[in-house]
Amino acid sequence: MDIIFNCPHCEQEMAVDNSGAGSEIQCPSCGAKITIPSAATPPAPESAPAGAVGGGSQASHTIASSAAAKIEMHLKVPVRDKPGEVLIAKPKPPLEAVARGADKKVRVRTIRHNMCIEAGHDKFDEKVTEFLHEVGEANLIGVHTVSYSHFDVGTQKLLTDYGVMVLYRG
User: Is pTM, for the whole model, over 0.70?
Assistant: First the structure.
């Protein structure tokens, strides 16, 4: 049977096998040295009534002495009333980086040439220029050309095309 108790310093709930009663341990949560309290005396087992048939007593005795009844569980999930401490804190950006807008997320936008053809007119340059104006020069990280292949359903051919990948803060 386990002894369940709380650390007197940090209130961390612990469960220890009763063979450890009276020994001194270090709290896994706060590191303070604590003494394991003695176990409370378990209640006496109920005896069978005088007029009971021996078969009922024998069945309960068989179950109590089975291997499954002898397995002791030494696992306990800690329960806390207050939130746990943060073990790994995310470093804050330097103040000069925040002033320049580095706290914004880095985003990617890919503009493909074949998606910019409207009614037979090539609108690729206009679409790229419009997007770059929306982002603004201060938020622009980089513009990279890309080459890709796609299957044209109309001609039933694999075509090679181009586009741009824009990295920006936003």
Answer: no
Strand ranges (E), 9-154: 13-17, 24-26, 33-35, 106-112, 117-118, 121-122, 140-152
Q: Which amino acid is at 5?
A: F
Q: Which residues of 149-167 are buried (b: 16+ CB within 10 A; e: fewer)?
A: eeeeeeeeeeeeeebbebe
pLDDT tens by residue, 157-168? 999 999 999 999
CA atoms within 13 A on the CB side of 112: 9
Cβ atoms < 10 Å from Cβ of 27: 16
Domain ranges of the chain: 2-70, 95-169
Determine contact, residues 136/73, Cβ cutoff 8 Å: no
Q: How far is CA 66 from CA 21, 43, 62, 70, 95, in A?
A: 27, 21, 6, 7, 67
